[in-house]
Design the sequence.
């Protein structure tokens, strides 16, 4: 027997008007999913919450949220949810129990299972115990996170936040609010499929090799409508794809890339205001088909890929009362793409597919084909039910095609801010030269034996120049050393180029070989056709990055002297720069210091493209030191710069006066282990990495970090300029 609202309120034991106002609809929702005895238990649980907390707002939230929870996950979840809410209410200074109850329906709709809900309850209480400031952001973020990952992925993301911030719980709020780079990176790692970031380089090479295009590729997330598009900023593709329909994720990316590249090469914008909404669909159909046909003419293998991904709408599949406009156009699109195998009998579909092929054969690169066919086609295939508000979408979305904003130019303002619009006719995006965006790098957690993704943030800057003549004066102090080093340089300096003869192809003909080939030919012998010669680079092909540890300790004075370690470091860098410049090697100079993982400062003093001259000298003269030594992040950033170089050999030479350390790390081994892993990463990429240290206590750790042959200890600091330069020369013989 159903309870009336007055009896239900009496059972709750709360007579407040705020509760009475919501009880009737809440009771109806509960009775729709619960048996009578379960409704009574539901009310008893509500009464328990009221007696424990005496908070009408919390009780109202419970009454409104839990019927949907029971419908999705079972009646048994009501008591479990109440227990969790009361547990959270008892945690000092937390006050998230109402938020927990409010988010239950959204989470239940995603998990749709009692066991899964219990797992989520445990995750919430774990965060409340171990990373308390992150509890409220976790509750708010859970529905969004579950749109992207399953429960296992959510649990892994939560686990990383709890363990990764175990020593900094006050920062957990930003992590669980998805407000940090590492939080987003960990979440991305839990998503199943192929990440665009992992295939970005390959896809850029595909653009260059197959389409001769140099365009930026930008990812967009799952929370956005999944529609690739093209604009003045470049190509926009999903940040992650899964295999689908027997087609691998990377092939799906390739199909999107080919379609967008075809638009870039062969489409020209139409004036959107000249066409109706339905005419847009028809014009887009023919323009998509036209540029794809051009793409397949250039690369015939694309047809197999397009056919595998293009839907094959069934003839007659649209129920009565539904608008078939998209279905009919999708059938024409399939018939154009697959003229032999589409299997359609609809005479209008066959007619318009045939008309397209005739027009395309006569003038394939004429973009007016699409507008002319689109206008007439729509009028010919139109039926009275086209105007129905219920549009049939099944098997009409071509997943590799874009939203076609690129082919339209709007003269009038769009109606809403959410409408997409073309950027034709707008100014090109402004590129701010010299502006460095923050760069994120992973960091190795030696206890977890795993990377913390995007854990550190590197901020770059170019040092403002000072008085470059100060560097010249420093070099004069080492004139005798420079003279001795000059003799070594003269022996190492290459001859630059040499001639290579008897090549099957080359820069120019080798006339001696041409004459010999003619003699052989006259004599009836088979001539040697290697009649070309080339001038090739001979000798050194090396890029060098000199990286300086500019932490606070380098400002210390040397024993018995007014000079600081920084003064000696400037001399050493200057002498080395002179030597490397004399050899003609490519080299750059940079320094680093840190103030926690959130701020690793990386300062450029000389770029690879700059000659060694007044400007780099001026920057070196203005060198300053301070803060701490987060070495792994700086090595990864410097390694990324070297990895982009084309030279055959690459050397990163680090000058430091101490072990890795930072203000947000208490574990003495943590940053040493990360630096060792960073060095291993660089060497795996072919980048030789050597540290020259001024630390008298380095013997206790340096070999563990850089390996037995990856370091040199300078006992006499004043000899650093000579030692550093001679080390470089010996490493690059």
Sequence:
């Amino acid at each position: 027997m159903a309870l009336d609202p007055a009896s239900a309120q009496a059972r709750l034991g709360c007579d407040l008007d705020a509760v009475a106002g919501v009880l009737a609809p809440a009771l109806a929702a509960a009775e729709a999913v619960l048996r009578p005895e379960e409704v009574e238990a539901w009310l008893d649980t509500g009464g328990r919450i009221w007696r424990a907390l005496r908070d009408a707002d919390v009780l109202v939230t419970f009454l409104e949220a839990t019927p949907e929870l029971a419908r999705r996950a079972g009646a048994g979840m009501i008591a479990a949810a109440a227990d969790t809410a009361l547990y959270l209410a008892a945690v000092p200074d937390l006050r998230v129990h109402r938020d927990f109850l409010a988010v239950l329906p959204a989470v239940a709709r995603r998990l749709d299972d009692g066991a899964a809900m219990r797992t989520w309850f445990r995750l919430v209480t774990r965060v409340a115990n171990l990373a308390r400031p992150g509890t409220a952001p976790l509750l708010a973020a859970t529905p969004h996170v579950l749109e992207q990952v399953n429960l296992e992925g959510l649990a892994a993301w939560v686990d990383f936040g709890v363990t990764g911030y175990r020593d900094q719980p006050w920062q957990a709020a930003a992590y669980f609010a998805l407000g940090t780079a590492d939080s987003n990176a960990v979440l991305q790692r839990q998503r199943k499929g192929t990440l665009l970031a992992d295939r970005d380089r390959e896809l850029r090479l595909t653009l260059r090799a197959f389409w001769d295009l140099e365009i930026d590729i930008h990812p967009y997330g799952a929370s956005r409508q999944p529609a690739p598009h093209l604009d003045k900023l470049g190509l926009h593709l999903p940040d992650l794809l899964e295999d689908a329909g027997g087609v691998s994720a990377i092939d799906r990316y390739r199909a999107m890339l080919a379609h967008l590249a075809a638009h870039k090469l062969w489409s020209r914008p139409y004036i959107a205001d000249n066409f109706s909404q339905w005419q847009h669909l028809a014009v887009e159909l023919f323009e998509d088909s036209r540029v794809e046909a051009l793409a397949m003419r250039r690369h015939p293998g694309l047809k197999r890929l397009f056919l595998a991904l293009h839907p094959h709408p069934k003839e007659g599949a649209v129920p009565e009362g539904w608008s078939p406009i998209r279905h009919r156009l999708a059938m024409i699109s399939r018939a154009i793409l697959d003229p032999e195998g589409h299997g359609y009998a609809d005479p209008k579909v066959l007619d318009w597919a045939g008309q397209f092929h005739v027009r395309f054969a006569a003038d394939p690169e004429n973009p007016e084909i699409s507008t002319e066919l689109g206008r007439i086609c729509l009028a010919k295939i139109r039926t009275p039910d086209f105007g129905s508000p219920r549009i049939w979408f099944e098997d009409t979305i071509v997943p590799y095609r874009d939203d076609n904003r690129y082919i339209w130019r709007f003269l009038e303002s769009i109606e809403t801010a959410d409408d997409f619009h073309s950027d034709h006719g707008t100014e090109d995006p402004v590129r701010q030269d010299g502006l460095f965006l923050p760069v994120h790098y992973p960091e190795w957690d030696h206890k977890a034996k795993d990377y913390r993704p995007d854990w550190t943030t590197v901020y770059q800057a170019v040092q403002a120049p000072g008085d470059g003549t100060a560097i010249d004066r420093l070099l004069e102090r080492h004139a005798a050393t420079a003279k001795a080093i000059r003799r070594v340089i003269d022996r190492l300096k290459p001859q630059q180029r040499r001639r290579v003869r008897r090549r099957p192809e080359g820069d120019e003909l080798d006339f001696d070989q041409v004459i010999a080939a003619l003699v052989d030919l006259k004599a009836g012998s088979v001539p040697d056709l290697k009649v070309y010669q080339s001038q090739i680079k001979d000798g050194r092909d090396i890029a060098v990055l000199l990286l300086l540890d500019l932490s606070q300790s380098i400002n210390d004075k040397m024993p018995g002297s007014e000079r600081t370690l920084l003064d000696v470091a400037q001399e050493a860098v200057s002498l080395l720069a002179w030597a490397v410049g004399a050899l003609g090697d490519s080299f750059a100079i940079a320094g680093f210091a840190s103030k926690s993982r959130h701020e690793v400062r990386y300062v450029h003093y000389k770029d690879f493209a700059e000659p060694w001259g007044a400007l780099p000298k001026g920057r070196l003269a203005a060198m300053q030191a301070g803060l701490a030594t987060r070495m792994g992040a700086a090595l990864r950033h410097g390694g990324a710069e070297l990895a982009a170089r084309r030279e055959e050999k690459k050397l990163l030479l680090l000058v430091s006066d101490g072990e890795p350390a930072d203000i947000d790390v208490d574990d003495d081994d943590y940053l040493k282990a990360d630096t060792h892993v960073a060095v291993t990463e660089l060497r795996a990429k072919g980048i030789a990495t050597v540290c020259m240290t001024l630390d008298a206590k380095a013997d206790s750790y340096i070999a563990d970090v850089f390996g037995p042959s990856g370091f040199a200890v300078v006992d006499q600091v004043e000899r650093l300029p000579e030692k550093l330069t001679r080390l470089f020369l010996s490493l690059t013989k």
